[in-house]
Each structure stands twice: as structure tokens, then as C-alpha cells.
Structures
1.
Amino acid sequence: MSALSAREVVAGYEPGLPIVKGASLTVAAGEIVTLLGPNGAGKSTLAKAIAGLVPVFSGSVTLGEADITGAPAHLLLRRGLGFVPQTENVFANLTVRENLELAASLAGLNRRAAREEMFGFFPDLARLARLGAGRLSGGQRQMLAVARALLVKPAVLMLDEPSAGLSPKYVAEVFAMLARVRESGVAILLVEQNVKAALGLADRAVVLVDGEVRLDEQAGPLLGDPRLAALFLGSREHG
Amino acid sequence: MLQLVADGLIVGSVISLGAVGLTLTYSLLRFANFGHGELLTWGAYLTLAFLGLLLAGAEMAPIEPFSFGWPLLVALLLALPATAAIALAVDWALFRRLARHGSAITLVIASFGAALALRNLVQFIWGTLPEYYTREIQIAIRVLPRDVLGGLRITPDQLLVLGLTAAVVVALHLFLTYSTLGRAMRATAMNPSLARLAGADVAKVARATWVIGAALACIAGVFAGLTGQIRPMLGFDLLLPLFAAAILGGIGNVWGAVIGGLIVGLAESFTVPLLGAEYRAAGSFAVLIAILLLRPTGLFGARA
């Protein structure tokens, strides 16, 4: 059974103007699925629709066996879906420790225990605990954002372009961290523009073009596949 | 000299408490609420009304050395939730509906309308004549003799206002720093969308912000009434100083609003002997303009 499943999802900001037009995908426990596509394909909108931040006009989203279609975003973390947005994904006016403790308290967890567990997983964050999150580097912010989503032990972790704006060194660090998270059995949906890095990490790739899924295949063999280049260049004849 | 500082700090205490509520609601709800001053007025009058009910015509026995007795404190405790209820009602009836479709300017104009309605309702219920919590005349205590920087006289009520303001601000700071709701308020002010993803019920956080802002306004209104008169224009007359304090401190910054309030109070106090009482407000605005020219985001503002 899939940890996360989206079926025929139609979603967007304005009714009658869908950006995602009937997209389906699944992510299994311990699997990384990367969601690829050219700019404006609707990748981020699909992720936000799954996370409850963008209205779903039709279709369904299930988390394990629970239907979470249109569920309020603030309930999803507690129910097992963590989402790390692309930008502004930490509370810059809170310290590293407060960022973690807030999510833990809101989920009804012991905030000290949850925080210490994350510090064990991300020792760099323990060192920066008292620092304002606004003063962290790009890579450290991603780490904190992922830690905040992970501390409730979600079944599914979604990340919207975690490599955006990061140097190659940090991209490698963030992706190595995601590989570790996968080993713990978490299902990961990774929205990415960095196709090469994403295909190198993911088990499966879903390519979205103009709000529709055009490819859903094993990730590794897709690297260098001419169909992928064609889809990114806007040709639809291979879809 | 010292007397001017003390007078300025007392006026500044009231402004600080009001400005903290204003800055909190601004940072969470993203609009300047020109109706906030009326919450001070309502807080003052609701306390007066509860005091009347508690005393039922009897005289209030003062707690020495203050001018008022326990019934005033009980009345204030009753007025806190009542003032919060008014803020929540206005939000429910007006701001929340307009926020769905309107822009920030729609909300600002609506807040002017709400202010007018609330003020006129006060006049309709209680009339326009000044009221007092107590008719006790307090003798100011000489704290310092006249030959030390002009001397210092202060009434016990004024000292209490200063002390309680400090206590309220410290309590608010601890609440915002250590409690889950306080942290959720800071997180929502920074990024409401991310706050939702972190598990915060943003609508609940907004309601809590109204409640806290209104409670602080109620306390400020009672302090203003205790150290002066209770009038329907009490809050309106303080509105511009409240905004000056919030902007001066950096809108959205609680400690900034406190310091801003004290600076505005001191500026008003020092303007009186230098330029005359009629230029009281002008003095505080001159300070505001001077500071904003040097620091456009206010003293502690990180973001414009």
C-alpha cells in the first residue's frame, strides 16, 4: 500500500483555472519519488494541494488509508505529512530550538525529547540551537526545515526544491540527508528542478508537464533519456 | 527635570500597553487597526460599569495608600474578557469578512468606521461628561527634595501604574518567549503559511491575538482613567501616540512598542515646559520623524 497517493487531482488558486489537471502519483514507504517538470508545470502547486495549502477542485489525496483531500494544512503534520516549502521555510524570528519546539508542542509531543532526538539526527543543529534561524546559511535552513517536519515522525515527507539557491556542496549534503531519512522508512516526495541530482537520488520519477503527468518510471534509467529532454523542451509528441 | 521624566514615564506606560496590542494585531492581521484606541475607552468604561455594579451605590474603601479599593481590581478583571469579547465581535462581524475579499486599505477604512461606532456607543450609554473611578484626592509623595534636579513628587497610584505596566510587559515577554501559543503567535506573524505547516491553527492564533491585544488595551484604558479622567475621547486622543509608539519601536516588535511608548510619553512631557501644553503631540511627532529619518524601520524593526 502507498504511504501517499494522489488520484486525478485537479487543483489551482482560482476555480475554473486549474494549474494541476488530473495528476496522479503514489509514494511508498522508504521510497523517494521525484516530481520533475519544466517551470510552470504545476509541480509546486501539486505539492501544495497535497499539503492543504491550495484548493483541490476534484480528485483525492490519501495518506496511508486516510483521505486527506482538502484537509486543513495545520492538521496534516500531526497526521503524518510533513511539507518543507521552497522558500521561507524556517521562522527567521525564532531560534533554531524554538523552531523545533514549536512544531513539537503543536503536535502534542514532549518538546524537549523531540528536540533532542532531532539534535541527535542533525548534530549541526544542536550546535546552532540558540541562534536565530534568520542567521542560518541556506543549507542549515534546509536542515532545520527538514528537522522540523521530521520530528513528528511523519510517514511522508514532501520537499519543494530543497536544492534551490544552494551551492553544489550543500546540495550534496541535503541529498545525503534525504537518503538517510529514506533509510528510516519515510516516504519522500521530492519536487526538483535539479534533474540530474534528483534522478541520482530518487527511486522513481514523475514528470509533470502543463499540469498533467507525462512520465512515471524508474528514476535511474531516465537520466539521459531523450524523452525527458523533449518534455522539458516543450515537445509533447513523446508524452 | 526629574518630575518631567516621571510624568513622561506614567503617560508612556499607558501608551506602551496600548501600542503593544496595536503592534501585535498589526503583525498578525497585517493591517493598521484605527479602532484600537476605542478598546482602551471601552476597557475603561466597562471597568467603571462593573465597579458600579459591585459597589451598588456604596463607597469604595481604599487600600492605603492608593485611591481605590479591591472592587476596582475585581471590576478590571471582569472588564478584561468583556473588552476581548468586543474585539472578537468586531473581528467576526467586520474584519474577518472583509479580509476574505478586501485589501488592507479596506480593513483600515473599516476600522475607522468601527472606531466611530464604538465611540458613539460609549457616548450613548455613558454620556460625554468625564467620570472617575474614585473621588478620593491623592496627595503626591515627595520622593526627592526640590534641590535635587528640581525634585520629584508622585502619587501612589502613579507608582502602581508604573510597576504594573512593567509586570504586564515582563509577563507578556515570558508568554511570547516560552509558551506554545506565544511562539505560535510569533511564528504566524512571521509567516502564516509556514505556521500552518508547522501545525498552528492560524485562525485560533488570530483570536488569541485579539484577546491579548484587547486585554492590554483594557488595562491601559483603566490606567489612563485612574491617572486622569474617563472620557469617550480617551482612546481616540491616545490613538496617534499609540501609532507613533508602535512605528517608532518598529511595527510588529513588542519591546519596540514598549520603548516607543515610553519615548513618546517622555517627548510629550518635555514638550510642555519647552513649547506649551498645546504642542504636546507635536513634540512626540518631531521625535518620531527624527528617528524614522535615521532608521526608517523604527528602532527595533527588522523588516520594513
2.
Amino acid sequence: METLHAAWVLVTEFDPALLAIIGLSLRVSLSAVLISLIIGAPLGAALAIWRFPGRQVLVVLSNAMMALPPVVVGLGVYLLLSRAGPLGEYGLLFTPNAMIIAQTVLILPIIMALTREAVAPLRREYQDLMISLDVSPMLKLRTLLWDARFGVSTAVLAGFGRAIAEVGAVLIVGGNINGLTRVMTTTIALETSKGNLELALALGAVLISIAISVNAIIYAISQIGRKYQEIP
Amino acid sequence: MAGKFQSLVLKSVCVKRGGKTLLGPLDLTLETPGITAILGHNGAGKSLFIKLCHGQFAASNGVVLWNGQPAESTRRNRSFMFQDTPLLRRSVAANVEYPLIAYNVVKSERMERVTAALIKARLSDHSDAPAASLSGGEKQRLALARAWVTRPQVILLDEPSASLDPASTKELEGLVQEISATGVKVLMATHDLRQARRLASDVLIFGAGKIIAQEMVPVFFDTEQTGAVADFIEGRL
């Protein structure tokens, strides 16, 4: 009970250490989502629109990579960024940027695969119209991405949900350095093992409220999206 | 769009899929203005024929020429309205605007033309509503507005009123006539003889993938028909 109260005080009094941790978590995960969206959404749409050699391999790969274990991604990115690795010279390891890279690797496949799934049925629906209007490939891509916007936003939020909640990847490449690379999940893991349950609980509560908000937004978006869809 | 419809010419055109001839051989010269109805039973090849005419796909043999130019390279002179009209998941106005974006029309002119097309189709009140929220009749009028907004020489309609009730059909027919009166050539596939009689100036009758008759409407309906054409009329009436 006392622990719960202490946790409550931390949250409601906007404890600066707590805020810094939440802020870094959001910064890392939102950056990863933004990068994944910019790269992954057009790629996912392209996979849905065009038939080219190797397409099926890419579809299977992006689907399979949706379930990549975060620790494995962390390990892979660690090897890339470590001093002996191919990108070692940039000194990115144990920085927030390394964490952004790791989370991007983690959620890019999710955004790609979910965007492809959202665009594929629309492509079938629009194909004849697009041919009849001689729509250019670029406009076709833009049109399908925009008209699949509700599905794409769901993909983005799913990606964000995974990024903000994962611990393995950011722990390995960030190093959980106090005041530098410590995010909500890594802090919870560490503080719990140290017996400092107040901070862990406070962060846990924040994480859960973020998860609930994200899902509420996904639901709201899908409700709006239904108005624009044909009722089958 | 520069120019007007002068002629549609098909020279020994065939459409084959998987070794089967679905359409043809077709030879046709069509020079009548106004509305041409493409009649025939389901499966006679009407829909395939007007898609071929638009240049939606290439013929297996032969050529389709509009004003002497190949169909596939002149698609933008024409508009096609599909039977199951695919509407974009956007507002009514955005649906009408879309072809103009595809054709690189500048924004200010797009707005003007969209407004005019929505007024013509009597959809101005719905311009910001999602297209999916419209009734069946309104959706077809929207599709027709979207076809008309590009100022085509020709509009091709594939069974535009197949799923409409009589009142909506009448409204759509009125709109088709209005558009035709502005000098746009209309080719309309339909299985409804009475609709052809109401709207068309001439008819093309299809049977089993071939053109079995091409006549002006008064002649067609006032003369006693024989053979396959008679079968079609009897079967329908």
C-alpha cells in the first residue's frame, strides 16, 4: 500500500527524473515510428500494388519479421554499431540514436506488412478505375496510401505500441545508462530487480495508460474509417 | 477536351482468353452522334466490348480506332463508368475531383469544374459527405459526374442502371440525356430494350460475342426482326 502511494506521488507530482525517462521513451519510440512510416508505408504499398520478381519473398519476410524477438534485434544492431562493427566509427552505441535504430528495425516490418494488408484489397477495388483514367504510378501509390489511411494509422499505432513496450532491444544497444539512455521499460526492469518498486510501479502505470490510449485511438480511427467504406 | 467524336472503327477485332474466343471477329464503323445502346443478353459480350472500345485492355487481334487513333493511347479523350462503380474512399467532391488530379488540371480550375459537375448531378448538398454514404442512385450519379468532369468526347456506360429502382433509373437517364445533349457521344451497354428505346438513337445488338445487328432506333423497333435478333427481342419481352 505504501509503495502504491509513493508511486502515485511520483506520478502526480511530475517527478523530474520520472518525466525525463518518459520523455526519452516517447522521443525514441516516436522517432522510430516516424522513420518506419516514411520508409515502410510506401514500401508496403508498393508490395501490394506491383508484381515484380522476389515480391513474394519480401512479403513472407516482412510478415515473418513482424514477430522478431526484440533481444535478437538488439543483438544484431549491437553488432553493427559496436566499435568493431561496420558502423562502429560513428560511435552510436549506447546513445538514444542507437535505440531509435534498433526500434526502427523492430517496427519497420510491422508497418510494412500492415500497410500492405490495408492497401491490397483497395488495389483490387480501384484497379479498373485506375486503368480507365490512365493514372500514373506515383499517383496510384499516393492514392492508395491515402485511401488506406485508416489502416495505415492502425499500423503506425501498432508499431508505436510495440516500440514503447519493448525492453530487449533498447536495453542491449542503449545500455540503460542513468540520465542518458534509460527508458520506461528498462527502468522498470532495473528498479524492480533493485527492489525500488515505487518508480517501477509509477512507470508501469504510465506505460499501461499509454497502451490504453493507443488502443482507444486505434478504435476511434477504425470507427471513422468505417464511414468511408462500402458496407459489404 | 479538344475535338469531337467523329468515328469508332473496329477492324477484324478478336478478344481471346485461354484459347477461347470471347469476342469477335468484329468489324464496325460507328459515326452516329448521340446515344448508342449496346444490347444483348448477359454474357453476349456487351461489357467486354465497351471495355475493349475504351482501351481498358488490348485486343488479341485487330485494331480499335477512335477518330482514326488507337483506343489505348487516347483513353483520356473518353470516360468509362463501370457497372460496379468503384468509388474512392473519400468525400463526394474528392471523387469528382480525382480524374482532374490524374489529368494534371490546376487547382482553381478543378474546383470550378467539380462544383459544376456536382450541380449537374444534383449532388451539391452531399459534396462533403463520404461517397460510401450515398444511396445507390446517388452513387451512380456521382460516377457519371466523375465521368463528365473531364470533358470527354465520349462517355462509355456499362449497365449504369442495372441495380437501380425505377425512380433512380429515370433520374440517371435524365442526366445521361442532358450530357448527351451537350455534344458528348454516349455508348451504353444495357440489357433493357425499353431503356434503349427511351434513350438511344441507334443500337448495336450482340449475340454470342458477335455484332448481330446495327440499326437506327426507329427502324429497329418498327421493323419486324428475324433470326437471332428476333430471338433476343422475344427472349427479353
